[in-house]
Design a protein that fits this description.
heterotetramer, A: 329 residues, alpha/beta, Rossmann fold, 7-stranded parallel beta sheet, 12 helices, 8 strands, B: 550 residues, TIM Barrel, 9-stranded parallel beta sheet, two-stranded antiparallel sheet, 21 helices, 47% helix, globular, disordered N terminus
């Protein structure tokens, strides 16, 4: 057991609700490590979650997500909202290590107690990154953050799942990565409520902007609930203050989407969809846990595999048998 | 305020000159401001340069040089008591030294035993090891694999006896003679020219040397019976060109003597090895080595008819210049030693000793000894200088300088020949005169500040002692009594009659022509001491006195 | 099942911007399977500590170059103590005179690595000490 | 194993030797089959390697195009390189004292180095500066400090090298000129140099002070001003050395360095200067790393490339424009704290390689640098290294003594070929400015630095005391440690505050306004900075004003606000 000894769950949650950073940090670690303790903790945390605006941001490397988030945080702080940030960076598939560099961009807030930043390695989470992230978000909600920003990299299925922890999802693109954009157009529909074209001061930005708007205009029917993604050009990098552009517009767009969600009461559907998805994930991996725990030591697992290899049976029948045995169905 | 110290030459505001002022190197050759292709007109690369490991060996004795194996990192392992020396040897090996040199204390050098009244206060002096009897040799070599570690005995007039003890101990330890490795300095001629530690007149001394060479040629094929040394000639004040010429002259003399006593040149020539000093002049030193290799190869093949390429190969051990080290600002010596060591490596030495930076003040201390060792290791493993053979080959300057060195050297060899050969030249004081003149000229140039020695005649410090932080090593005085006592004990426990008979036998052999080694070996086994053996020889050979030369 | 990760904060402090060493160490710790939060340059001791808290770090690694270690180390140690982060390992790297190593250890630094340290020694130290601290 | 082992004499167990290790060491090959930069070395180079060489075209005598063998005909016969020691420590007064010391020891040039606070453009009273003033150099906040630093040093005689690299170099230049004027010197008579290479300095941790556009603007203001007013002054030292210290290879050092140089050259040409007007005063700072021959080859290659580039690319006619003027700094990153006296050895032969390369000005590291700021002893040792090379070793007798060496000439060609390839890479990025903007260059540094560390970790590169022949670490620094008295720092801050309270504000504001106007009008900022300096404007005030006009925060650390707006 690598991590430190803990006080009782209830005590920890108390401290968390009081906004204690260390309690939050320690609980997040437990969640990350998928420790047994985490479930009992999350049970206590859950009732205090679900009250914050959760924004998901993804986009490929070099699109300037971090700088963008830095400015969003600044804006929300000006509105005196407490902000939590979950910055996910890829872990090395070989060593499992990760270099988490986003904090460099958040330096302006390094001394601000109203901002809680947590870097996560994508690791090889059982039950997927999404589940861990969702729990982290809940912890941050419970600790009293009004806005929580979830940052992740790329637009693969994992990221899509992660982003779906949020109510409002941003896809960040930048010019001069045409291929990525082509690749992402496909995913735009299911990922993005808002598309941010960052580094809009670079050559080719206009062309890029137009082609994106075209994609949305022609590519996407207005979803039945009446929200259509928009493209917002921004410039988030640059030491000069006047270099930075489009942030206000972006914040407005986010607010617009939020109020749309509430007015159109789509928010319930969204949340319902999220819960369904979560249950799916949780069942999948809890069930797997249960089954494998059940098989552990019985030597059955190996028997099944050998039987399948020998052609005496097949995966489908095995699954049926096992499920029957375990779930008495 | 800027020139508070009037002693400093005013380099501060030095203005450019056209650089046409004549410049001489240490050998006194005029050096041109620049060398180019025109300086190598008519230079036949194949014939005059060849390849490393190929005739005429200018570019190195071996084909791959240090890529095959680095030079032997050989450091000084002496220290009065044999046990101490033995310990130091193993410390050095542990620190990564790959070869060891052992020098002797004053009494041993003068051929006397520790209990000799003349030696009072001298036992274990100047960091040398005191060897009286075979017992000392046993302790000195304890646990050292004689077939692996090449021990270099810095021993000259007494070499035949030291070698005898070495063989005797090896025999006791069951190491057969054909496996024994190592080196005996054993270069008697340069003693008369420079070092001046001899007992007998030149000719009998030379005979002893030839006896050891002949003995080794037959019995110790892996052992270097002699290391023909320019180092001491240079240290006595000779210029690089003189060091080169006189050392080669001596070398050829041993060859001629060997042939005279009827040895086949290809039997003993391959085991002749050399010992050079690194002068301060970086490139002159490189040229010296390269010229030496070319001359040796050509003379051995053309003049002495050697057929075996190993006889043509000039193999050399090198030591950085002890005399260039200053007592002032001792850390500066680290720099001098580094540059000299690099020069020796670029010159293609087979083996290198780097001096300790505090030698001008004290016997090397563990720290300074270690630093000297590290200096070689840094050059070997970090500098990349060992990455390719003879990296300076082709350089217009270095090749021209090499040619010039060769030409001047041949002139000297001619002069010596005209004087009737080395022995004659020694007897009429030719070398001694040449060297003392050179030494005098050099000293003058330093005093006139024509030649600047940092910290000595320029850039001196007022508050000297404050900023030298060097631990010094003192001689331990108890050692002498212990040693003398031990020796007396040793003499008491041996068969005195047997000892006397062995000494008479030695005297007999000296009167005749037979090789002296076998009788010496059985003598030391019987307990005859170094001093006694020499006394026995002196009965026949007498003591040599040279008239002073200024 | 994934392995629980050692989490390391790597940071410069003050104005010195020689971040090469810090970056190299960060990357190599990553390759050793650790999760490294790199804070970059111009950090204040308080900022470093806040990051360590938020990230629930096991190790704080600070890199110095030019003599500022005696200025900032006490401040960092103080901040660690006042925040009760006694279970966090404080490791400093950079160039200092050997005399200062015991000095810094007295202040409360757990380990000091100078230039010319091999990555392996750093990794081994962190791995073993973190395990100790947590048992 | 050996007879010697089996039959023991009197055993002395105080030092057990592993004879197997001994044999291994004995037959060890030096691990130098490759150069430091990783190029295969042949076991032997010979005339075949030089076939097709055209001496006059490809090599040439010293003093003749393409200057491969040196920029002067007689090289060190005419004049030794300038032997420099960098000083910069505590207060301007402390620094002046150390400078004077180096003079007495026979140094022929003087380098004073700015501390981090100065380079960042902060005054001592800046909240971030307090802890670090005078720690790594000297902070000059006003004309007063510069007066103290200069003291009675004769500015028209001594060759003074001001090491301020960042955009603060503009302030330094202004302060130096202001003091010179005050002391009544004709500024055309000033000899010396200023580092003034803000573009490279972003990679030394000064990004906030060195935004790219401002770096080129202020850097070139200094260059332009000196070109027009200070004919004896070297107005930039493009610092390849710092780039090399990031861990890049020898050819990358040259390639990237030239790339940055071109940023300035192109701007100066854009400003209407003729290449031959300014190029002769262009200088470089080059590293001499641990690989003896590779570094010599690098220098020779750089000389040839510069000559060709200036002649062919920029159409220079004056041979002096084609001469690669450079100073060498021995490789600080090659020094290690383990067995520190070994560093004297490294420095010694690195310095030798610089001299054999034909250096104009040499700075030797102090062996104690990996442990502390150079001690007086360390400085002295470094200086002695140069003096021994100059006066004892005779290596100065002939120009380019290695010229013609099959190996060195071949390696020179190889380095040139590789460096040209690097420059092509940069070009493919859209030129150096683009490569910097897109952080392509950063990524090169990252990658190379990690490669280097791995080479040491897995023993491809050997370092005595680190991965071979290591020993117990020293408990103390052999020849002492350099400490900075906090006293000087406190005084610095005090004096700065005093100055700010006692100067004539109206006059100051007026001067700052002028500066602001000049920047806005795109004029050269140096004259206005000089005036403002006479009006006791401080470093941060000069630079902050310029930064604001360019739209950057007044204070790079974004804490202090401008007192003028």
């Amino acid at each position: 057991m690598l991590k430190k000894r803990l006080s009782s769950p209830s005590e920890m949650v108390e401290r968390l609700l009081a906004g204690d950073r260390r309690a939050a940090a320690r609980m997040i670690t437990l969640v990350e490590d998928g420790a047994e303790a985490s479930n009992s903790l999350m049970k206590l945390v859950y009732p205090h979650s679900g009250r914050s605006v959760v924004i998901g941001i993804t986009g490929s490397g070099g699109s300037g997500k971090s700088s963008l988030i830095n400015h969003l945080v600044r804006k929300f702080r000006e509105q005196e909202k407490r902000v939590g940030v979950v910055a996910v960076d890829p872990s090395s598939p070989f060593t499992g290590g990760a270099l988490l560099g986003d904090r460099i961009r958040f330096q302006a807030h390094s001394m601000d107690d109203g901002v809680y930043i947590r870097s996560m390695g994508s690791r090889g989470y059982l039950g997927g990154l999404a589940r861990a992230t969702r729990d982290v978000v809940r912890i941050m909600e419970a600790m009293g953050n009004d806005v929580i920003i979830v940052e992740t990299l790329g637009a693969g299925q994992d990221e899509v799942d992660v982003i779906h922890v949020a109510q409002t999802c941003l896809l960040v693109l930048s010019p001069g990565m045409g291929d990525d954009i082509q690749a992402m157009k496909a995913g735009i529909m299911e990922i993005a409520d808002l598309i941010v074209l960052n580094k809009a001061d670079l050559d080719g930005a206009n062309f890029c902007l137009r082609s994106l708007e075209a994609t949305i205009h022609y590519g996407l029917e207005e979803s039945e609930d009446g929200w259509k993604p928009r493209v917002i050009p921004t410039v988030a990098a640059g030491a000069r203050s006047e270099d930075v552009q489009g942030i206000d517009e972006l914040v407005e767009a986010i607010e617009a989407h939020q109020s749309y969600l509430h007015e159109s009461r789509t928010i319930e559907e969204v949340q319902a969809k999220r819960i369904e998805q979560e249950l799916g994930l949780v069942f999948k991996d809890e069930l797997q846990k249960v089954i494998f725990r059940g098989l552990r030591g019985t030597g059955k697992k190996r028997k099944y595999i050998q039987a399948i290899l020998a052609g005496r049976t097949n995966p489908y029948s095995v699954v049926e048998d096992v499920l029957r045995a375990f779930l008495k169905v | 305020m800027l020139q508070k110290n009037p002693e400093q030459p005013s380099f501060m505001f030095q203005e450019p000159t056209d650089g046409s002022a004549p410049v001489q190197n240490l050998s006194g050759f005029e050096i041109k401001p620049e060398y180019g292709p025109e300086d190598l007109a008519g230079f036949d690369v194949e014939a005059d340069l060849g390849r490393p490991g190929g005739y005429p060996y200018v570019r190195g004795a071996h084909r791959t040089m240090y890529r095959g194996r680095p030079w032997t990192i050989r450091q000084l392992g002496s220290l009065g008591p044999p046990q101490e020396a033995n310990k130091r040897i193993r410390q050095l090996v542990d620190m990564g030294a790959t070869g060891i040199s052992l020098c002797l204390d004053m009494p041993t050098i003068m051929g006397r035993d520790s209990d000799d009244p003349l030696c009072e206060g001298e036992v274990g002096s100047c960091g040398g090891v005191a060897i009286d009897s075979i017992q000392d040799m046993r302790e000195l070599l304890a646990e050292i694999p004689l077939d692996e570690i090449s021990v270099n005995f810095v021993s000259n007039s007494q070499s035949s006896i030291i070698l005898a003890m070495f063989c005797a101990v090896a025999e006791e330890r069951g190491v057969s003679r054909d496996k024994l490795t190592g080196t005996m300095q054993n270069d008697i001629l340069k003693e008369y020219e420079a070092q001046k530690s001899y007992y007998f007149p030149p000719r009998p001394s030379l005979r002893l040397t030839m006896d050891t060479i002949a003995f080794c040629a037959e019995n110790l094929p892996r052992f270097n019976p002699i290391s023909i040394s320019g180092y001491h000639i240079a240290s006595a004040g000779a210029t690089p060109i003189q060091e080169l010429a006189f050392t080669l002259a001596n070398g050829f003399t041993y060859v001629e003597e060997g042939i005279k006593v009827g040895l086949d040149v290809d039997i003993f020539a391959p085991r002749l090895s050399f010992f050079f000093k690194v002068h301060n002049d970086f490139f002159e030193n490189v040229a010296k080595f390269r010229a030496a290799r070319r001359i040796w190869a050509r003379m051995m093949r053309e003049k002495y008819g050697a057929k075996d390429p190993r006889s043509w190969r000039f193999r050399v051990h090198t030591q950085t210049s002890g005399s260039s080290l200053t007592a002032q600002q001792p850390e500066n010596n680290i720099i001098r030693t580094t540059i000299q060591a690099l020069s020796a490596v670029l010159a293609g030495t087979q083996s290198l000793h780097t001096n300790s930076f505090n030698e001008a003040l004290s016997i090397p201390t563990p720290r300074s000894e270690k630093l000297a060792l590290r200096t070689q290791q840094i050059i070997a493993f970090e500098s990349g200088a060992a990455g390719t053979a003879d990296p300076l080959a082709g350089s217009y300057y270095v090749e021209s300088l090499t040619n010039r060195m060769e030409a001047e050297c041949l002139k000297y060899l001619k002069t010596i020949e005209d004087l009737g050969g080395v022995i004659q030249a020694i007897e009429n004081g030719f070398f001694q005169r040449e060297i003392s003149e050179a030494a005098f000229r050099y000293q003058q140039s330093v005093e006139k500040k024509e030649r600047i020695i940092v910290g000595v005649n320029a850039f001196t410090d007022e508050d000297e002692d404050e900023d030298t932080d060097i631990e010094l090593r003192e001689n331990d005085s108890e050692f002498e009594q212990q040693k003398v006592a031990a020796l007396k004990e040793f003499k008491r426990n041996r068969d005195q009659v047997l000892v006397e008979s062995h000494m008479d036998r030695i005297t007999q052999i000296c009167q005749g022509q037979a090789n002296i080694m076998p009788s010496l070996i059985s003598a030391v086994k019987a307990g005859v001491t170094l001093g006694e053996a020499i006394a026995a020889m002196r009965r026949v050979f007498g003591q040599y006195q040279e008239e002073a030369i200024f | 099942m994934h392995k629980e990760k050692i989490k390391v904060i790597v940071s410069k402090v003050g104005l010195d911007g020689h971040d090469r060493g810090a970056k190299v160490v960060a990357s190599l710790l990553k390759e050793a399977g650790m999760e490294v939060v790199y804070l970059g340059m111009y950090q204040s001791p308080e900022g470093i500590i806040k990051a360590a808290i938020d990230e629930d770090a096991d190790v704080i690694g600070v890199s110095y170059l030019s003599g500022e270690h005696l200025v900032y180390t006490p401040k960092i140690v103080e901040a660690i103590r006042s925040n009760g982060l006694d279970d966090v390992l404080l490791v400093v790297g950079g160039s200092f005179p050997p005399e200062d190593i015991p000095l810094m250890k007295e202040m409360g630094v757990d380990e000091v690595f100078r230039g010319g340290s091999l990555t392996k020694t750093i990794i081994d130290y962190i791995t073993s000490s973190v395990r100790e601290k947590n048992h | 194993m050996s007879q010697g082992q089996s039959k023991r004499g009197t055993p002395d167990t105080s030092c057990e030797v592993n004879w197997d290790d001994y044999l291994k060491a004995y037959y060890e090959k030096p691990q130098s089959g490759r150069t430091w930069s990783g190029y295969e070395l042949k076991e032997i180079y010979n005339p075949k390697d030089r076939v097709g060489e055209n001496y006059t075209q490809d090599v040439g005598d010293a003093g003749a195009y393409p200057f491969t063998r040196g920029i002067h005909r007689n090289m060190f016969r005419g004049r030794f390189w300038t032997r420099r020691e960098v000083v910069g420590i505590g207060s301007p007064a402390d620094t002046h004292e150390r400078a004077a010391f180096c003079f007495e020891q026979g140094g022929t040039g003087l380098n004073t180095i700015a501390d981090v606070t100065y380079e960042m453009g902060l005054d001592p009273d800046h909240p971030w500066a307090q802890h670090e003033v005078g720690l790594t150099g000297v902070n000059i906040s006003s004309i007063k400090d510069m007066e103290i630093l200069v003291g009675d040093i004769p500015l028209d005689k001594v060759s003074w090298s001001l090491i301020t690299a960042s955009t603060a170099a503009a302030a330094t230049m202004a302060q130096y000129v202001a003091v010179a004027q005050q002391k009544g010197y004709d500024i055309t008579s000033l000899r010396g140099s200023i580092q003034n290479d803000p573009v490279h300095f972003r990679y030394c941790g000064f990004r906030p002070a060195c935004p790219l556009d401002l770096s080129i603007k202020l850097g070139c203001d200094v260059m332009e001003f000196c070109t027009r007013n200070m004919p004896k002054w070297y107005y930039t030292t493009v610092n390849m050395y710092d780039l090399r210290e990031q861990g890049i290879t020898a050819p990358q050092e040259v390639g990237f360095g030239f790339g940055i140089a071109m940023c300035y050259i192109d701007e100066l040409i854009r400003r209407g200067l003729d290449i031959d007007e300014f190029a002769p005063r262009f200088t470089f700072y080059v590293s001499c790393h641990v690989d003896f021959f590779e570094e010599i080859a690098k220098i020779r290659a750089a000389r040839r490339m510069w000559a060709r580039m200036l002649k062919e690319k920029y159409g220079a006619k004056d041979p002096r424009s084609m001469q690669f003027h450079f100073a060498v700094h021995t490789a600080g990153c090659s020094l290690i704290p383990q067995q520190p006296l070994n560093n004297i050895v490294r420095i010694a032969y690195q310095a030798l390689s610089a001299v054999l390369g034909g250096v104009q000005s040499l700075h030797c590291c102090s062996y104690d640098e990996p442990m502390c700021l150079p001690t007086e002893k360390g400085h002295l040792q470094a200086l002695r290294t140069q003096q021994i090379l100059a006066y004892e070793t005779g290596v100065t007798n002939a120009a380019d003594p290695l010229g013609g060496s099959y190996f060195v000439e071949t390696l020179t060609d190889k380095i040139e070929e590789e460096a040209v390839r690097v420059m092509k890479q940069v070009e493919d990025q859209g030129g150096m400015e683009e490569a910097i903007r897109t952080e392509w260059l950063d990524r090169q540094f990252e990658a190379e630095a990690i490669k280097r560390q791995k080479e040491v970790d897995n023993g491809e590169k050997l370092i005595v005391g680190v991965n071979i022949f290591d020993a117990d670490p020293e408990k103390t620094t052999p020849l002492g440690v350099q400490r900075i008295g906090e006293k000087s720092a406190r005084e610095q801050i005090q004096q700065c505050l005093e100055l700010k309270n006692t100067r004539n504000i109206a006059r100051l504001k007026d001067a700052i306004e002028r500066l602001r106007e000049d920047v806005a009008a795109g004029k050269n900022t140096i004259p206005a900075m000089i005036k403002a300096t006479h009006a006791f404007a401080t470093t941060s005030e000069l630079l902050g004003t310029v930064r604001q006009v360019y739209g950057y925060p007044y204070d790079p650390m974004q804490i202090v606000q401008s007192p003028f707006s």
